[in-house]
Specification:
With 92 residues, the chain is mostly helical. It has five helices and no strands. Helix content is 71%, strand content 0%.
Length: 92
């Protein structure tokens, strides 16, 4: 397997995880983000996405909705990209 095949498989796995979170609300936030951006994400950005996706859905939803501030160990900048994408889709 080549490096290109490895990253393609990783992208497919992350896209699947984004759409199958366990809560419909987070599926609708992360799924469309993955569909729109995952093919353009670099390996370091895939790491960042995976780190955000490793968070539990209830906390992640509160951060996305602006109900709570994420803890310092969460990648706020990347989470902000996800939130901005979600808000842009919701404002259409």
């Amino acid at each position: 397997m080549t490096a290109g095949e490895d990253i393609a498989i990783r992208r497919k796995m992350l896209r699947y995880r984004a759409w199958h979170r366990g809560t419909l609300e987070m599926d609708r936030v992360l799924g469309p983000f993955a569909d729109a951006h995952i093919d353009a994400l670099s390996e370091p950005d895939l790491d960042r996405l995976e780190s955000v996706m490793d968070q539990e859905d209830p906390a992640l939803l509160k951060w996305v909705m602006g109900q709570e501030v994420p803890p310092a160990d969460v990648d706020i900048e990347f989470l902000g990209r996800i939130v901005a994408d979600h808000q842009a889709r919701m404002s259409k």
